[in-house]
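ARCHIVE CARD
CATEGORY: sequence design from structure
SOURCE FIELD: tokenized fold
FIELD CONTENT:
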């Protein structure tokens, strides 16, 4: 976060505070805490801390989330009213839907039938034949949730903005990219659910910013996201 977004924010006059929560490296390794979806329990203490730091204008706090953070930060926005704005790079509406849409049809059917144990047993045999992005997703899920892959996936069923998007009252910048290999179409769903509170920005191949979280063109991506933050009401 510091290298992809933090330095760009500092260049534009923002103060930057980065932190880790459950599922992120230090917390996983030292505290053995796997992923949680209710990220407001992580962020609210951070907001409390910001209110004690004289250099920070706590009336203008912007919460910035990358990748899976594209679900976590709008969720926080629904429960933490002290945020002035939220930035999702890129937005996620439904985590479970996003992950399962990458799966082969037969695997999705087995998952819907509740055949979790069978899927887990088959995984070592089918994993080598899956697309690279899906192999990475499964490995990362097992590590960050500290659970077997399909048990972890079951936990994501509750990770949706469907019933809480309407609770968000602050502005939300929702970014999307043309060629997102993980959550294609999800940012637009989130923006529609947020209605008037969303500013939707789509990065395209024409601007060279088409891949997941604009990792291929962070300078161009940061220029757009922070310009939007600076010009917002």
């Amino acid at each position: 976060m510091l290298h992809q977004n933090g330095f760009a924010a500092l260049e534009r006059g923002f103060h930057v505070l980065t932190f880790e929560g459950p599922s992120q490296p230090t917390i996983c390794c030292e505290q053995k805490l796997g992923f949680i979806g209710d990220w407001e329990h992580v962020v609210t203490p951070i907001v409390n801390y910001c209110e004690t730091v004289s250099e920070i204008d706590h009336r203008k706090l912007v919460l910035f989330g990358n990748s899976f953070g594209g679900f976590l930060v709008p969720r926080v926005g629904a429960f933490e009213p002290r945020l002035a704005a939220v930035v999702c790079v890129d937005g996620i509406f439904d985590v479970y839907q996003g992950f399962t849409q990458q799966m082969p049809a037969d695997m999705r059917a087995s998952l819907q039938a509740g055949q979790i144990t069978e899927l887990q047993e088959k995984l070592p045999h089918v994993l080598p034949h899956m697309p690279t992005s899906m192999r990475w997703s499964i490995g990362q899920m097992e590590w960050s949730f500290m659970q077997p892959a399909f048990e972890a996936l079951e936990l994501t069923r509750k990770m949706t903005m469907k019933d809480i998007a309407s609770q968000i009252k602050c502005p939300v910048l929702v970014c999307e990219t043309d060629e997102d290999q993980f959550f294609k179409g999800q940012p637009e769903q989130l923006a529609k659910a947020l209605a008037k509170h969303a500013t939707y920005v789509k990065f395209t191949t024409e601007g060279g910013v088409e891949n997941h979280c604009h990792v291929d063109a962070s300078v161009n991506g940061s220029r757009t996201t922070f310009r939007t933050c600076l010009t917002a009401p």
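CARD ANNOTATION: The chain has two domains: 2-94+160-231, 99-156. The chain is about 45% helix and 10% strand.
SHELF: design records, drawer C
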